[in-house]
Amino acid sequence: MSFAALLLVDIWLTGGDGSGDNSLPVKTKLRLDCSWFITLQLISRIPELGIKKPFTEVIRANIGDAQAMGQQPITFLRQVMALCTYPNLLDSPSFPEDAKKRARRLLQACGGNSLGSYSASQGVNCIREDVAAYITRRDGGVPADPDNIYLTTGASDGISTILKILVSGGGKSRTGVMIPIPQYPLYSAVISELDAIQVNYYLDEENCWALNVNELRRAVQEAKDHCDPKVLCIINPGNPTGQVQSRKCIEDVIHFAWEEKLFLMADEVYQDNVYSPDCKFHSFKKVLYEMGPEYSSNVELASFHSTSKGYMGECGYRGGYMEVINLHPEIKGQLVKLLSVRLCPPVSGQAAMDIVVNPPVPGEESFELFHREKESVLGNLAKKAKLTEDLFNQVPGIHCNPLQGAMYAFPRIFIPSKAVEAAQAHKMAPDMFYCMKLLEETGICVVPGSGFGQREGTYHFRMTILPPVEKLKTVLQKVKDFHIKFLEKYA
Ligand SMILES: Cc1ncc(COP(=O)(O)O)c(C=O)c1O
């Protein structure tokens, strides 16, 4: 198959313009959300198909998969996982005592002392206790109840499960789910799978992608004409936009949710990924409690965390948890019932989550190495965040907000009208056209902004900052050269 034919297959798969047309059937829409992944799969086959391209490797800057980009696993986490997986190693002198202690405790909590057995649907008890203790420490003493903790198959599973129990009604009373635009496409995919109504609120690009409560008010008022807005999803730190919300903004959002009686979903998978010195992660749970009992006893909140991001990047273990508060006891019963249909999340993922919330502490044998490895990953990400922002902002026709957190840049790109016409001729969204050209000419795979949603007439792409520093410098230089050539070609 020729390269052009491969591209044609992709254009077909992306439905022509990658716009997520609402008239399409659900299955097709779900496929649209995966379009960049399919593109990558096709492009990855170029070497085996013998197609000559002006690059020697495809650089996968399209997906937040840290270890796939060369990030080394945290030693302590892998030691405990190795011991849990193959307990004969507990006799080996090669493993530190604190790792053995964690592994023994986890194994004792598993049926038959084995990771290979099912756990309770809500997750292994002692891991839920560790998660609750972690949340209490993180939130400066705000209590967390293990009974409100549910271990999940990555954060994705928790997010889709909560949406499943919240969506109901028909016609104008169908549940509306408010999501940020740009969004992480899991949300639009689950909303369309559940036939819920997507209610967009736009983040403020001119103001470092901040969330403005007036915009939430606009979105909810307009949505009330055609659906019943019940859920407000927040991603903090943001993906793809990288902003970290201020405490004041979180308070405003909670007040708004309280006023409108909305269920809050706080996606906090990037809680360890904050780089700007003037930004700090504030959990919704903590701020909610600090706002007093009127809020803390009434606002329903589910917050999500994961083993996939942070400094650990253990995406493949599929570990995660959610903390759900103020849920009506009957709904809680329904939630547990729903979770029990899938028996339990992978027990290995639960164990990985335990190590994230219960890492070595000062005085323990593994602390020093753990601390060094963690700081090295986060320090490198901070360096790469700044490098990326600075370089993009030197390129005419690219503007990039500061990457305050998470692991992506989402620069705005100027696409000349001649390129927009060329894209239309290829039945592609202009930023899809741009990203395909970038891929064909440089081997760099990024995701068009239209995959996340963006204000009409604006164009973006999302690129991860996960390649190692030297490789990232090369990538940025190549994007710069490509962009300048692109502007010249379509001037
Ligand atoms: C904002 C956000 N939420 C949820 C997820 C899903 O994470 P997990 O791998 O834990 O399912 C991701 C993954 O990239 C994400 O960026």
TrEMBL record:
Coiled-coil features, chain-numbered ranges: none
Record protein name field: alanine transaminase
Assembly behavior: Homodimer.
Signal peptide feature range: 1-18
Aminotransferase class I/classII large domain segment(s): 79-478
Name of a matching Pfam family: Aminotran_1_2
InterPro entries assigned to the protein according to its UniProt record, in alphabetical order: ALAT1/2-like, Aminotransferase_I/II_large, PyrdxlP-dep_Trfase, PyrdxlP-dep_Trfase_major, PyrdxlP-dep_Trfase_small
Gene: GPT2
The keyword Signal belongs to this UniProt entry's keyword annotation: yes
Phylogenetic classification of the source organism: Eukaryota, Metazoa, Chordata, Craniata, Vertebrata
Enzyme class: transferase
Pathway(s) served: Amino-acid degradation; L-alanine degradation via transaminase pathway; pyruvate from L-alanine: step 1/1
Catalytic activity: L-alanine + 2-oxoglutarate = pyruvate + L-glutamate
Domain of life (superkingdom): Eukaryota
EC number(s) given by UniProt: 2.6.1.2
Keyword tags: Aminotransferase, Pyridoxal phosphate, Signal, Transferase
Family the UniProt entry places it in: Belongs to the class-I pyridoxal-phosphate-dependent aminotransferase family. Alanine aminotransferase subfamily.
Needed co-factor(s): pyridoxal 5'-phosphate
